[in-house]
Amino acid sequence: MKAAFERLGFDPCYHFIEVMELRAGHNEGHRKAWVDFQKGRREMDWHWLFQRYDAVLDLPMCLYYEEMMEAFPEARVVLTLRDPDRWFDSFSSMSRSLRRMRLATLFSPKLRATITIANTVNDRLFGGPPLDRDVCIRAFEEHNRRVIEAVPSERLLVYEVGQGWEPLCTFLDLPVPDVDFPHLNEGEGLTSRMVQAHILQKKDAFSTDHLKDTS
Prior knowledge:
The chain is mainly α and 215 residues long. The chain has helices at residues 2-7, 16-20, 30-38, 46-49, 65-71, 84-100, 109-126, 133-150, 165-172, 190-198; strands at 13-14, 55-56, 77-80, 156-159. It has a single domain (2-206), classed as Rossmann fold.
């Protein structure tokens, strides 16, 4: 979805990558702001946070859709639906990867911040560890239900990525690109990419730049 939004002109799109990796002139101070916000030390200034961005997605941002709707009353909301079991498998894989790297927090501020934010997400959505499949799937489905109830229908698109460009572009009043819808399987090699990003400090471990149109 990040690559798709950027292909449609919402570039850059705010994703968890933007919380962790510095993009000069765009997100200075964001990592600390998120950690402080998640620990209850400060309120989040949504206008400051997104002033250089055109779209927002991913955790933990999607948990604060009501606050962002209030801050940006003209914004449209895309709720992406996934198979709950496949979502849980992906989410639990990410959580296991983070647990394996906990010792590295001693020398990686980036990893400490990631785990702080992940723990807050787990506590807020699932009541903390361990991650139980049934509990997590119920919370996942309840989140989707609350979004559908809270967002006015004229501002909401309930969307599955497999539907491709057409419903997304119709909702956003944009022409359909003459390229395939981008695809990146985040589950493949996740642990390796997390090690590259958080321990080896590789800045493009989660990059979607190769999926952008370069014509």
